[in-house]
Amino acid sequence: MNTVAFIGLGHMGQPMALNLVKAGVTVKVFDLVPEAMAELTEQGALMATSACGAAAGADVVVSMLPAGRHVRGLYLGQEGQPGLLDVVAKETLLIDCSTIDAKSASEVAKVAASKGIEFVDAPVSGGTGGAVAGTLTFICGGTDKGFEQAKATLSIMGSHIFHAGGAGAGQIAKICNNMLLSVLMIGTSESLQLGIDHGLDPSVLSEIMKVSSGGNWTLEKYNPCPDVMPNVPSSHDYQGGFMVDLMIKDLGLSQEAALSSNSSTPMGALARSLYVNHGRKGHGQLDFSSIFEEFNKKG
Amino acid sequence: MNTVAFIGLGHMGQPMALNLVKAGVTVKVFDLVPEAMAELTEQGALMATSACGAAAGADVVVSMLPAGRHVRGLYLGQEGQPGLLDVVAKETLLIDCSTIDAKSASEVAKVAASKGIEFVDAPVSGGTGGAVAGTLTFICGGTDKGFEQAKATLSIMGSHIFHAGGAGAGQIAKICNNMLLSVLMIGTSESLQLGIDHGLDPSVLSEIMKVSSGGNWTLEKYNPCPDVMPNVPSSHDYQGGFMVDLMIKDLGLSQEAALSSNSSTPMGALARSLYVNHGRKGHGQLDFSSIFEEFNKKG
Amino acid sequence: MNTVAFIGLGHMGQPMALNLVKAGVTVKVFDLVPEAMAELTEQGALMATSACGAAAGADVVVSMLPAGRHVRGLYLGQEGQPGLLDVVAKETLLIDCSTIDAKSASEVAKVAASKGIEFVDAPVSGGTGGAVAGTLTFICGGTDKGFEQAKATLSIMGSHIFHAGGAGAGQIAKICNNMLLSVLMIGTSESLQLGIDHGLDPSVLSEIMKVSSGGNWTLEKYNPCPDVMPNVPSSHDYQGGFMVDLMIKDLGLSQEAALSSNSSTPMGALARSLYVNHGRKGHGQLDFSSIFEEFNKKG
Amino acid sequence: MNTVAFIGLGHMGQPMALNLVKAGVTVKVFDLVPEAMAELTEQGALMATSACGAAAGADVVVSMLPAGRHVRGLYLGQEGQPGLLDVVAKETLLIDCSTIDAKSASEVAKVAASKGIEFVDAPVSGGTGGAVAGTLTFICGGTDKGFEQAKATLSIMGSHIFHAGGAGAGQIAKICNNMLLSVLMIGTSESLQLGIDHGLDPSVLSEIMKVSSGGNWTLEKYNPCPDVMPNVPSSHDYQGGFMVDLMIKDLGLSQEAALSSNSSTPMGALARSLYVNHGRKGHGQLDFSSIFEEFNKKG
Fold first, then answer.
1. In which domain, by residue range, is A227 found?
2. Are residues B132 and B184 in the same domain?
3. In chain C, how many domains are there?
4. Is C261's Cβ below 8 Å from some Cβ in B?
5. Residues in domain 6-phosphogluconate dehydrogenase NADP-binding (chains A, B, C, D) (predicted)?
6. Residues whose CB falls within 8 Å of the CB of residue B207, separated by 6 or more in sequence, listed in order
């Protein structure tokens, strides 16, 4: 049976690690905030006093951190401190589930490869709900071997596991998807409001577009217009779900990627500006479908 | 058994009328271009010498014309000539399948209503392929009574028949859908190219996004990247399908609608400008998924 | 000495007509709202009881109306009533100072030309301030002869008089200018805020860009950032000036024009959507430089 | 009399250094490409064999390099090699004229400040023409003392020298300006083409907008429509001037800055995407006013 070191126990990391514990995996946890480890140790996880301590002897390391600089710090070391890549055994499988810039992911993967260590970037989607339920989607970048090895651990925490390509490909695929999602959300919002402004019932219009060529995920699962679907954020004052601030973060990552590859993303770039305007007005904590409110005022 | 007058036998009207003939309906046809009627009369349709002549005594009138001015001319009359609304019996059901501006549709509907005649605006989607196969989608505006009556005739020519709302609602719903479609197409194109620019395989990326929150009709049915799907225009030099020039027409209608209702459509308006740029460079006859080519150059 | 008929005495028309009166011109006024004529008759204008009555015997007709349908109604007639073109003498010079769609302007001009009457479209810029001060800018469309004749009257009400081209060209040139103005305003706003977000003093940044390649009218005369310039709307809670709702009207006219000529205006179309969002939130009566407030929130 | 070390002798650096030589300044030059130093030494400059060698004993160091990583490498050192900040005397004035990301500029400035050395970021505008003529514009960031000291040297190479604020402010002000410039250029292009599409003469329309509220630098100095102005790139097949690829670089820097400060720049972001599309089609070496060609096709 494997031992997993889990580094980073925030809103996502905590329930993810808990699912490993519940599945009978030996889990050693570490977080800079000791309180974050309390519930997990109550449930049977072992508490480490440092990231390196958690990783020592583990078969698999899973990390879930906020940004590229944290991931680089963890694996490559920082301020004179060694990183995991300096201390773990060659057989250790490293899985980073953070959503970070592709450049950082590739940089860590490159160093890992130079040491013969498998490193898989495996950003998730599905939110805290999916993390709790163990139904997350993982989009992985790495070698075929690394991906196959990672599946065993990831399948305990999620229900969809994709292999997007080589090192960094998981990050790229995720931000491509989330950039497209933001475009779907805004395009759907303005289309629905255009219909409403002409007297159409948004439920009827949604139903028509959903099964026509305008069909997309937001109409299927996440209608931004209040009271069209019962159990979505738009019908509950845009509470819960995927926050505007997180969408802005992901759109920033997609723009960074577009800058580095000299890519043109007119829709994605516009979506970012509209979301930033929305967030800066104080709506950063609302669900991202609240962008609908930028369109539905009566004036 | 009903008699149907069919006015306007272009690329769409001809196969639509033919399906009525084949179903055993008595069809009286009229088009300004006599040749357009030849094939239909060979198949058993009756040829009229004027629109009013075709409509005289018909139970149902179906029209399929290029633009609002033609529809207004047909039903309201022009240059001193009477329109159909001046001559048909009160019981005649009028169905206009043209894609036109909502204002013209509402104007004709209003005059019809003042005379107690049912008028249904029923723009189609599905292209010439759907017209031939009898699998078109009709998006209808009109009274409940008019809609119910229209179903019998429309179901011979199509497989999906929606009731979007009152007079003009069919046109609005259609252009909302097509505006959204253009946004899906461009958003998907730039997301795929961003992935490609970072070394991802577009087939793999498409597969991932299709079942994730970026999922949309273009990924399901109409991938814009060549050789990802076999039987779509992008894999055949963007031949066939739904022409750029027709998308520009529909985006123009959606912008007209947005102007009249003081609606904001940043994504739809941007899509129109990008499609116009594309069309003006000489790509107006290509399928609308060819917008992908604006992004995939290497520079 | 000429007699001028002045039709339409709103916020702009009233002070414009007054300047003619003060200059000693014999002015016959008409407005559907009798009160609008009171101040002018006190100052010496003659009151007419209809537009045709005002125009009868006048050498010059000046009209200042809200929209294309009013202008078409006035000159071409409506609901069975004759229009000015049915009643005025062939020598009468017609000058329409309204800002309307180019199509209406061309339509009226065409009928006028068919009767041998000179018609000049002469939309203004400069606001009520310029109307009172007699410093308006007139951008004219019409024949060389019509333009030369119109100058005498227009120069009493304004200080800049341009000849943009043939019939309708005045309207087109004005909306091209105002579309560009909206782009300058938003581009300047976001550039200033980007600097502010990085700690720059907006006054210093404005000063630098004004004399560099970012230089434009808004930096010269109308800085959107509060307290950079003393006597502009941004330094007075965005009161006065050119209202957001009027900018939205002009951007609508420019988009109508772009639709009719199959032109691509990505920046102008985006500007319209941003202004509509802004206006619908309740800011329609603020000066158009208040678009800056869409960017300057702290979040 | 001062001694100036000049590091980086590309298309801009070479003529800038030459102006110093011609003004009688003792100039020590260094470039990784020896040939780049040949002309300067012929004119009297002293050739150094390394950047540190050039800087040793110099009163002022001027650097002109392609990107942030080169500037960081030069001043902070790289791959175990010392940087200028490790070797120069405390009294040396450092002036970096490169256009780079604000973050790199601030990083170098911070290290310099910690050692008590004045560092001024002083990106230029004016192109190679301005470099040769000695009429460049310098936009500086740094302390008041550093700025005052830098003026003596900069005024030999340029005619406008601005102080935008503290460390990094020169870079920010420059990219704000250039982002705004790109918006002016595209907004002007689409406005001119809208007029042309309606039959207006672009020269007449330009003249009107130039003195109206659409007035901006591109209409004054750099009209994008061929044959409106004689001595600009648009009238010479878009040769010379400021290349599309360089505008894309600057727009990338402005978007990086917007990402780091969570700023919304809808116009600037759209401009970048349009320029990238244009550049990737093979127009990267044309002058940036060639964006007009994206709009002026007839279709």
1. 172-294
2. no
3. 2
4. no
5. 3-165
6. A162
